[in-house]
Specification:
Structural class: alpha+beta
Strand order of the largest sheet: 1-2-4-3
Largest sheet: 4 strands, antiparallel
Number of strands: 4
Order of helices and strands: EHHHEHEHHHEHHHHH
Strand content: 5-15%
Helix content: 40-55%
Length: 245
């Protein structure tokens, strides 16, 4: 039952993403048909810098719906079930998660919280419990097998698995959903695990599409102040109430 660490890989993103967003924005304000403009975008007649500048200016105005035309798909491993439960609360997304009904967890990997890892006695108790869970799972699976459950024994034995159990998931979000996700989950108030995942995803997005994601991140970074109330602010930025004093 080894400890797993986070790994985030970009599987795919929409081809010609910047040009697609530029065309979608232009259609909102252009009398013509952007399909006639598309060949010019593809052959370089409209430079990437010009496209990026136009997109940035429109985004600054608050008009961001056209970025929904571009998607990013990630493969993620080394996150806990606790983290994946937080992740799937983001509704404008598609998820394909490793199933505990079908995947044998007899040698379950798990995620060890850093706060527990730093305290020897806490780590020892945590790891002892993980060993106990693994043993219980294997015992239950064996008993259920002997009573005729066979392949279905995994779907019943999984009820003893903890939230620390490692999971793997494929996530697809459009750019607008990703910007919202980063606003919330790159925040210092987000739990460490989903924040680490969000920051890893953001690194991929910045490399692939800097025109959209170069300044993405926690909401305070784009606002210049913390939108939380004084009680929950982390202190990196002044709160709204502090600004208005």
């Amino acid at each position: 039952m080894p400890i797993k660490t986070l790994r985030v890989e970009l599987l795919s993103s929409t081809p010609d993403a910047l040009s697609l967003i530029y065309a979608a924005f232009r259609q909102c304000y252009h009398a013509g048909f952007v399909a006639d403009m598309w060949p010019k975008l593809m052959n370089g007649e409209i430079e990437k810098e010009k496209q990026a500048d136009f997109v940035a200016k429109v985004l600054e105005s608050g008009h961001d719906s056209p970025v929904e035309h571009v998607n990013f798909s990630f493969a993620v491993e080394g996150i806990s079930r606790a983290c994946s439960h937080q992740l799937v609360r983001h509704r404008i997304a598609s998820y394909s998660q490793q199933s505990q009904r079908y995947v044998d967890a007899s040698n379950m990997d798990y995620v060890l919280p850093p706060a527990i890892a730093r305290i020897p006695e806490a780590r020892a108790r945590f790891e002892a419990f993980m060993t106990e869970v693994g043993s219980a799972y294997r015992d239950l699976k064996e008993i259920l097998d002997a009573h005729g459950r066979k392949e279905k024994s995994k779907e019943d034995a999984r009820f003893v698995l903890p939230q620390a159990a490692e999971t793997k998931i494929v996530v697809t979000m459009n750019c607008r959903a990703l910007l919202h996700f980063f606003h919330l989950r790159c925040c210092q108030r987000a739990q460490w695990e989903i924040r680490d995942m969000a920051e890893a995803m953001l690194e991929h997005c910045r490399r692939e599409l800097p025109a959209i994601f170069a300044t993405a991140g926690a909401k305070c970074e784009s606002l210049g102040y913390c939108p939380e109330n004084d009680r929950f602010a982390c202190g990196r930025y002044p709160t709204r109430s502090q600004i208005t004093l």
